[in-house]
Write a structure and sequence with these properties.
Order of helices and strands: HHHHHHHHHHHEEHHHH
Strand order of the largest sheet: 1-2
Shape: globular
Helix content: over 70%
Radius of gyration: 19 Å
CATH superfamily: UbiA prenyltransferase
Number of helices: 15
Strand content: under 5%
Structural class: mainly alpha
Largest sheet: 2 strands, antiparallel
Length: about 325
């Protein structure tokens, strides 16, 4: 029995299951913004998002296994340690794609949802396979999340609103930041050893004598992406339906401003961290990502309503805390 339990936990670690809720929210919020309120169909969108997450992360783990072997911090990863055979990872990648496409075709039998899903899968696959070899690959991955969000929106209607596009672009820039800045900093040491050409390395970021060297170019890039993200949040606020300013939602506005300050404080902290502490970086990244997600939901709250907003706030955060604790015994950051 213990062997079965340990085996299941290893597969969930391979899936990075603790972050599934965040990825799955993209098609879910896409559908909700367009007006989808059928609980069963929203659940199907959630499943499609989870399958897209599994596809992307398992393929990434499979492609990066030789790179990860060069870092002592990553030797406990399932494919690196050998606790899960690489052939099993290949099967999971294919199966997750097939299941996501099958659910889309069965429950949303119109051309656009499957087209956008296939575009998301294609862009995610291109990033996983070639991401550390080509310039600007973070924007390719961001495009994948743009289309998975748009796929969720298209399951209800193809008459997309300006709000829908703003939300899709928010996911785009969030993923670009998450991958280029957070991922670039977190993995810079073993990426450099493996000869990877990530955005961070191309901009001169490195670890020297245990201290991260963060260049002004990289800082400018990081702040620039975050400023675009915040500008889109305020553009969302000024759209006709959320309309926080003109309807005088003082509480929501105050929360957005407060969260913006947290975003910049955590950004400053991990760009100026004095020593390369991967564990501390991951904790700061967790706070930073949760904050940016909350900003999106608070901006959309007048349109979504109180209970949907509360559910969407709890979904990825509670999911992350529960599964991270189950898989790694900590609340805020995984061990690998």
């Amino acid at each position: 029995m213990n062997n079965i339990k340990n085996r299941m936990l290893e597969y969930l670690r391979l899936f990075r299951f603790q972050t599934c809720g965040g990825t799955a929210s993209a098609p879910l919020i896409g559908g909700l913004v367009m007006g989808q309120r059928d609980i069963f169909l929203l659940f199907i969108l959630l499943l499609i998002g989870i399958l897209y997450h599994i596809f992307g992360f398992v393929l990434n783990e499979y492609i990066d296994v030789e790179v990860d072997k060069k870092s002592l911090d990553l030797l406990k990863k399932p494919l690196v340690s050998g606790s899960i055979p690489r052939t099993n990872a290949q099967f999971i990648v294919v199966l997750s794609c097939v299941c996501a496409c099958a659910l889309t075709i069965v429950f949303f039998p119109t051309p656009l949802p499957i087209l956008f899903l296939l575009l998301a899968i294609m862009l995610g696959g291109i990033y996983d396979i070639f991401g550390k070899k080509i310039l600007g690959s973070d924007f390719i991955l961001g495009g994948g999340f743009f289309f998975i969000c748009l796929s969720g929106a298209s399951t209800f209607s193809s008459d997309f609103t300006s709000i829908t596009y703003v939300v899709c672009f928010l996911y785009f820039f969030h993923i670009v930041f998450n991958n280029a800045v957070e991922g670039g900093l977190k993995d810079v040491y073993h990426d450099h050893l493996a000869g990877a050409k990530t955005s961070a390395i191309r901009m001169g970021v490195k670890v020297k004598e245990g201290r991260p060297v963060v260049t002004k170019l990289f800082m400018t890039f990081a702040y620039g992406i975050r400023i675009i993200f915040i500008a889109l949040i305020f553009l969302l606020i000024f759209q006709q339906e959320p309309n926080l300013w003109f309807n005088r939602y003082i509480l929501q506005i105050s929360i957005v401003v407060f969260l913006t300050s947290i975003l910049f404080v955590t950004l400053y902290k991990f760009l100026h961290i004095p020593t390369f502490d991967r564990s501390r970086l991951k904790k700061l990244f967790s706070i930073h990502e949760i904050t940016s997600y909350f900003m999106l939901l608070i901006a959309l709250s007048p349109m979504l309503g109180l209970w949907i907003t509360v559910f969407l706030i709890l979904l990825p955060s509670v999911w992350y805390l529960v599964f991270n604790n189950i898989l790694y015994g900590t609340l805020l950051q995984p061990l690998v």
